[in-house]
Every structure is written in C-alpha cells, then in structure tokens.
Amino acid sequence: MEPVENDRENHLGGDTAADDSVIVGLLTECQLPLRLYVRSLMHGDASAGDVIQQTNAKIWEKRGEFEPGTNFKAWAMSIARYEVLNHRKRQARDARLQFSSELEQTVASELAEMNDDLAERQAALRQCMEGLKPESRELLMRRYASQEPLAEFADRIGRSVGGVKVTLHRLRSTLAECIERRLLAAGESQ
Amino acid sequence: MTPEEQTTLLDALLDGEISEADFIRLEAELVVGAEVRQAYYKRLQMELLLEEAASEYKFELPAAVDRSERKAPDQISRGTLWLAGILVAIAAGLIAMVTILSNPGNDIDDVANSLTVDTEPSATGFAVLSGQSDAVWDGAPINSGALLPEGELHLVSGLVHVELFSGVQMVIQGDAIFSIDSPMQVSMRQGRARAHVPEPAHGFRLKTSGGEVVDLGTEFTIDVDQDQSNVNVVDGEVELRPLGAQAQRIQVGKGMRLAVDGTVTPSNGGEVDLVSPEAFQDALAKRQSRQFQSWQQSIQKLQQDPRLVAHYLVDPDEGWSRTLVNRASATNRTEIQSDVSVAGDGVAGDGAIVAAARTKDRWGRTGGALDFSPMGSRVRVVVPGQHRGLTMMCWVKINSLDRWYNSLFLTDGHEGREPHWQIMNDGRMFFSVKPPSNDGLTESELKQQVFYSQPFWDTSMSGQWMMLATVYDVDQKQVTHFVNGNPISIQAIPDKLLVDSIKIGAASVCNWSEPMYRTDATFVVRNLNGCVDEFAIFSGALSADEVSNLFLAGNPNEP
Predict the structure, then answer these.
(1) Measuring CA to CA, how many Å separate B212 from each of A28, A75, B11, B15, B185?
(2) Would B127-278 and B307-553 be classified into the same CATH topology?
(3) For chain B, which residues make up each domain, given as ranges?
(4) Distances, alpha carbon B101 to alpha carbons A29, A93, A105, B421, in Å
(5) CB–CB contact B83 A60 (8 Å)
(6) Alpha helices by DSSP H, B207-366
(7) Could you please report the per-residue DSSP string of B448-485?
(8) DSSP code of B373?
(9) What ipTM was assigned to the predicted interfaces of this complex?
(10) Strands B228-242 and B465-473: what pairing?
(11) DSSP strands (E only) in B138-274
C-alpha cells in the first residue's frame, strides 16, 4: 500500500470531498465504536487488533469516497465489516461461530449510537480494581497482558483450566457489577 | 437463560472457548434481546479497559512459570504504519481544536487522557514563562507560569521573562524566534535577549547560525538577526565559539560581532538595551499592582450586582479570623427581597473557615487565600433562596487532582434541586443539579444530570492560578464550563432534567459535608488539594461576555 495522499488532495480539492483534517477528526471520533464493533464480530480472536488497523488504513485510503454530510460512523462501520469478512475469508475461519449478518448489522448501528462513557468506566474500573485482593488483581492483569489461549495461560501459571476459568469469571462479574454501581452512584448522588 | 448463564456464555465467547451449541443459544438471545446486546457491549468495553490496564500494570510477583514470551497486543502490520504517521501529524494540528470542541467524552483526547491517568504524571518542557509584558506570540498565547512548549517559538512583539530549569534567567524581546533545546541550551534565529547565568548553570550555551555563545558567568546580552549576532558582556565573561574558527573570550564591558559565516569582529555598539530579569519582574510587579487597583474597583461594582448572592474574598488584613465575610452588598439584600423579578431572595451569610490555612493569594499578598490541602479543610456556608439558574466562579490554584472527586462547591449530601461542582481526577469539571425526583427517569437519563467538561487540567498546570466558572442557564437550557473566561464546553440540559428553581442551603466550599444526621466518623476525602482566593455565586446565568469580563478584571497575569 503506497501513500497516495498528495495526489488525492490535488484531485479532490473542491467542496465535494471532506478535507483530510476533517476526516482525521471523524476517524478519531469513531475509534471506540470501531474497536468495539470489530471486537464484537471477532469475539475471542486475537487478530482483531490487526483488522482494526487494516480498517483504519482502508478508511483512509477510501476517504475520497466519503460524502461529507452523510453518516461517517455508519460508513466506517461498513468498511470495518467488509474488512472482517475479508479476514475471515483469508483465514478460512470456522463459520459456525459467526453471528448472522442481520445481527452484525444491528450491532453496527447500536454501537454507532452508543454513548461514549469510556472515561467514566475507566475511572470506575480503576477504583473497583483497588477493591480486589492483590492476588486476584495480579491474575487478572496477567491474563489480560497475555494473548495465549486460556489453556496455555493456565498451564503457564500452574493452575487448572477449569479453576482459572471460574476465577476469571467471578472477577469479571465482580468488576462489572462494581463498575455499574459506581457509575450509577456517580450519576445519582455526587 | 439466567443472567448468570448469560455472563458465563459471554465470557466463554470472548475467551474463544464457546461451544457451538452455546454459541447458537447466545446468538439467539442477542438477536432478540436489546439488553443482552447492551450487556455484550459493556463486557467488550471492560475487556478493552482491562487490556489497557494490563499493558500498564506493574507486576509485583514473578509468574509461576514464564515459558512464553508475551505477544505485543494489536500488532500493527507494516503496510499500515504510514497511516499512524499521518494520523499523528495531522492530529497534532487538530489537538487545539479538538480540546475546544464540546463533545464530552467522545473524542480521542478524552480517551487518551483517561487511559493514561494511571501512569506517573509527567509534563514536557525545559523552562517556565515567568512573566510577559505586551507579549504577542505567533500561535496560541502562553500563560504566565506555564511551561514553554518545545520547538521553535515566535515572539512577535513584547517582552518575556523565561526561567530555565538550570537557573538561567532570560529576558527576550520580540520580534524573536528561538527554541529552548534543553535547560542548558537555547537556539536563537532572531531577536534580542539578556541572559543571567548563575553559577550552577555556567556553561549555558546560546546557539546562533554563526556559532555559539558559552556563558562562563554571569550576564550577557545578544542581538541576533539573519546576518550577524552582537554579543556584549554585562558582567563576568563569555566564550564565543564561531563556526569553524577558534573560540575566543569576551571580557566584561566588551562586545563582539559574530557573522553567519563565522567571522568575528569587535563591536562597540554596547550592550543591548534590555532590562535585566530582576528589573523586569519589578516592572511586572508594578504593572500587576496597577491591575490589582483596577480589579479592586471592578469588585466594588461587582458587589452592587443584584444577582450576586455570595462573594467570598479572603482579607489579608484579617489575620487569624475564621470568618469569611460575604461581600455581596448588604444594601442590595433588601432590594433583592423587594424585587420579585430577581429570582434570588436573599444573600448568603458569612462563611466559617475550617482547617484551611491562609496562604498567598494570586496577587502575591500573604494571607489573601485559603489553602484547602490540610485534611478536613472547608468553608461552611449557608446560601438561602431559590434560583432560576446559577453561576459559580472561583479563582483557584490546584496543586494536584489526587482525589477521585476534588471539591469546589458541594451542598451537604445531595438532595433534589441542589448543585454540586467539582473536578474529576482526570481533569474534567463536573457540574450537576439533581432533579427533584428520579421517578420515570431511566438509568442513562440519570447519568445525563452530570455535565462534564473536557479535561482542562493536567499536572503541567500545577501551581498556576486560574479562574473557573460554570453557568447553569435555565432559559437557554444549557450548562457552560469556563476556564479563564473561555467556554470550554457547552451542553444542553435535557427537558426532563431541567431544574428551574435551584436551592443550595448548607454547603461547603472545596469539600463535601455529608448530611448532619450521619454520626459515622469515617468520611471520604474530597477536599481540594489547592488554594482559593475568590469565590462567587450568582443567582441566574451570567453571559459568556460577563464571565470573560470577570476574568479580564481579575487576571493578575498577562495575557
């Protein structure tokens, strides 16, 4: 893929195409829904990160085709979906574990509309992590710092897969509840 | 499917461990259940945040067995690296714009900011702008007390005083183009400067296109243009190192001309006519005192404003008094009560200072401000009346935002129709007026009662005085946050949450008091780690111009 932005700028020039800085702004704004969308379609697949990067590159490449005034997020999500499909084709992934295309589209439109409260969630998560036992926190962070399949991870830390699975599940549920509680408290009584 | 089953399956899905049968069950639930999908999105968000947290996490215990190398998450493939470059380059230009845009919690700045809170605080720069006089910068103005940004700076006109971290003091006169390369080196393409170099900073270098000037102590002036530089030694000695020629020393009282080609000739033009850093600060102090006088006059006028409910100023002459007198005019009190068109029907009483210690105010007067950092610090106030809209303003110097909530003004507890004003630990301003009843409001509607600004504060601003203000405008149905007179975010108040009659009652400045009936001695730490020297509450909404004027009248610094 060659950088072609100079040529493109020249030939776009007029009022029809959005200028590059506008595209960057829009692209920046929709990073979170894009990430969530690709991750939701590629649940449990470690190469989701690559696909997100490819999606960004593709959006940039195709930016001349975006029509200012139309919904950028929706346009970006459609490119993301296309990239996910492409990736699946290349990887010849097991198609049995894929959402129906109808559901994939519902997810896209809902994520595009979702309120971004990631900053609040992050603050809440940080507080909630403080409440965990140090060993639990260690385990959780180790799991998220690694990209190995669960079985390998369990093996590495010398525990049974079932045991790790249950522990992680409990920790996530605890955190998820704690986050929602804190968000509610922050919205209600601060 | 029970909620417990649902979360188990979501976990399995995201772990890549789900069976086909379970996948089909879960998919069916996702298709029909909007709330199941919401749960899925929330789990995904948590997943992203946990990965983010893990990438920054400092592990204390060694892993039991560390056989596999950790793979870098989200590996960027070669073909997309150039994109990252473009994004960074263009984004740099956008940052100023993005931070102004009021799209709370929905831009990368916010996300980036929130995702880096856990790392050790850092700031960038080698020097502080200690003062300026009629300074005009090419680009955004730089506040006095702020760190000078890296890279080339263009001072179009005016005088500035720069303090490098090495101890070097410089007065620079525009039109000047220079960059602070390190605490020990400044490059200058154009302009006039006077540098005072204390002993610990001997060896300080000033680079020009024709060569460099190395200070051996203690003071010199330089005048740089595109053809040559004139160096004059005011005190001590400097070494001139022309490009490709022998270094030579210049003694006190002598001057040299250094051409861009490296040739050196004696000059007798004398030193550049520039004030020393000391004299400059004296002049600034005089200027500031003029500004102080005019602020005092503006305050007298302000205190006649019938909308002013409370105006707390710390009087340096009151010594150890624990009473913070409300200066809002007593004569207006009666007028307000008889004038129904003004929503406020009373003026606040005097405040009671608790624990907060007296310290220097923004004008440098000893005892003119309150330091709220001692544990338990607060000023207790009672503000009567019902208010159709509200404006809060304060001059504050923040040391750090190390609490989860950093208080500015909070009513006791938090009842319906009461305002809370504080700063989040990620630098966002928080303002909310609680609706009288939560009935019929959904969870997400309830969250909208809090109006957050963009993050406006980071550690590089520690110790700087600034004016914060928030306006709750019932008629326009909007909340506006201001920093130093500039609106940083404007948000609409949803109709369901609009409170047209705000009440305050018992409240605390810079802390939160839980309701009186609480007998539990344990309390959350929310006092502001910082100082305040002026606090005002207006009944009703001030216009953006009025807020801007408050700042201009009360700003001790230039610009």
Answers:
(1) 43, 55, 64, 61, 10
(2) yes
(3) 3-51, 81-115, 127-278, 307-553
(4) 12, 42, 30, 21
(5) yes
(6) 277-302, 330-338
(7) TTEEEEEE---GGGTT-EEEEEEEEETTTTEEEEEETT
(8) -
(9) 0.81
(10) unpaired
(11) 152-164, 169-182, 185-196, 205-208, 211-224, 228-242, 248-251, 255-259, 264-267
Q: Does domain B307-553 have CATH number 2.60.120.200?
A: yes
The DSSP element (H or E) to which B492 belongs, if any, is strand B486-492
d(CA B372, CA B367): 13
> Please, which residues have CB within 8 angstroms of residue B276's CB and are 6 or more apart in sequence?
B171, B194, B196, B219, B234
Token pair listed for B466: 């600034």
Query: CATH says A118-189 is which class?
Result: mainly alpha
Tokens representing A137 are 């926190």
Nearest to B27 among A29, A99, A120 (CB): A99
Cβ of A44 within 8 Å of Cβ of B15? The answer is: yes
- The answer to whether B515 touches B294, Cβ cutoff 8 Å, is no
For the beta carbon of residue B59, count every other beta carbon within 10 angstroms. 12
Q: Is A183's CB within 8 Å of B447's CB? A: yes
Peptide bond into B134 cis (omega under 30): no
Placement of tokens 């001590």 in the chain? B236
DSSP collapsed to 3 states, B427-452: CEEEEEECCCCCCCCCHHHHHCCEEE
Q: What is the pTM assigned to this prediction?
A: 0.52
Q: Do A190 and B450 touch (CB under 8 A)?
A: yes
**Which two three-digit tokens encode residue B404?**
């989860």
Which helix H or strand E contains A81, and what residues bound it? helix A72-91
Task: Name residues 57-96 of chain A within 8 A of B (Cβ).
Answer: 57, 60, 96
CB contact under 8 A, B420 and A190: yes
Q: pLDDT tens digit string along B367-409?
A: 899 999 987 788 988 899 899 999 999 999 999 998 888 999 9
Q: Which of B191, B183, B243 is nearest to B213 (CA)?
A: B243
B127-278 has which CATH code? 2.60.120.1440
Q: Which of B108, B110, B425 to mutate to test binding with chain A, by most A CBs within 10 Å of its CB?
A: B108
**pLDDT 10s digits, B499-554:** 999 999 889 999 887 654 444 555 567 889 999 999 999 999 999 999 999 999 99
What is the CATH topology of the domain spanning A5-113? Answer: Rna Polymerase Sigma Factor; Chain: A (1.10.1740)
Print burial letters for B331-356: b (CB count within 10 Å at least 16), e (below 16): ebeeebeeeeebbbbebbebbebbbb
B415 token code pair: 């009842």
Contact A82, A105 (CB under 8 A): no
* All structural domains of chain A with their residue ranges: 5-113, 118-189
For B93, which residue in chain A has the nearest alpha carbon? A21
* DSSP track, B272-304: -----HHHHHHHHHHHHHHHHHHHHHHHHHHTT
Cα distance from B529 to chain A (closest Cα, Å)? 18
Between the alpha carbon of residue B47 and those of residues A37, A184, B472, the distances in Å are: 13, 20, 36
Q: Convert the pLDDT of each residue in A56-94 to its tens digit.
A: 888 888 888 888 888 888 889 889 988 888 888 777 656
